[in-house]
Amino acid sequence: MRKVTIQEIADSLGISRTTVWKVFGGQTGVSQDLRSKIIAKAQELNYTIPEGSYPAADAAAEAPLNIALAVCRPETSTFWLAIIHRIAKELSGHQVNLIYTYLPTSVGAGYTLPASLTNGGTHGIIIINVYDEQLLRLLAASHLPKVFLDTSTAVPSSELNGDLVLTENRASIAQITESLIASGRRSFGFIGDIDYAQSNHERFEGFTKALAQHGLSMDSQRSLTGPIGRDTYKEEISAFVAALPGLPDAFVCANDHVACILMQLLLGRGVRIPEDVAVSGFDANQEYSLADDLTTVQVPNSHIGFRLAQQILFRIKYPNVPYEVISIASQVIFRGSTTASAPGIPTE
């Protein structure tokens, strides 16, 4: 009978040969669940299993998985809570503990990750609302399985050492921009820090590509695309509006927070929306003033939470398969802050 090899076992499970070798060599670094799968596959293939490879007799009583939810600040908005609650619900259904781990919004050179992420009691990390480059790189360097919801442009997906989940950004913003062009708008400004998050940058790319396809370009004098202080959005956008040499036909904004601040400022100056200038956002976050009338992009928050939970469980089970960049579809919703919607596009 032909002798089964370690490589065959590894290939059949989609894992590395080294992981199988660790199990049969009595090494650490392989979860109990994966160890059991490797041994079961070896038995199925009639591989001669060395002594000491079997899980402990009390493996059934093994403590459940602990997943850290790493966030930069406590989130109380319904937008984020919908994501977090779905993560908790999904992991609870798999008997997995979810542990909140709060991180600073920015860190210095001497910062180290909390002990809860480094003491061996955590089996994986879901990372949301983290955009500081140094902090992202510290998390990326962790050996734990990781899933990120968005990232900074300074730390691309290829450097995260984990999976990345994003909403679809380019096509939806391009769709809004196309509809504004179709309604006769010809001058455009963009507002939002395009390097703060990869999602913001992708939205900007969708905006500029749509303009270029019609021989148009962004009006840089009427755009605010550089860094904006996290706690000074209203002040900085107000100063920007006050210094404008004139208004474009439309402002496309990186998110609803920016768009609603802008609308409030414009309306306070007697500007009519959309007659004088059209404004759009992103996220469909109904917590902001004026959001009911804002053209935006619906993000499936609950599904994002479900997908983050499922992906961290997958990553823990299959730590050696290639990392994934996952794009979750979004939907444009045209409302009164822009002109009439394009044919076949949902409106509210």
TrEMBL record:
UniProt GO molecular function: DNA binding
Bilayer-spanning residue ranges: none
Gene3D superfamilies: 3.40.50.2300, lambda repressor-like DNA-binding domains
HTH lacI-type domain boundaries: 3-76
Keyword Chloroplast belongs to the record: no
UniProt organism field: Cohnella cellulosilytica
Protein name according to UniProt: LacI family DNA-binding transcriptional regulator
Pfam families: LacI (PF00356), Peripla_BP_3 (PF13377)
Keywords assigned by UniProt, alphabetized: DNA-binding, Repressor, Transcription, Transcription regulation
InterPro entries noted in UniProt: HTH_LacI, LacI/GalR-like_sensor, Lambda_DNA-bd_dom_sf, Peripla_BP_I
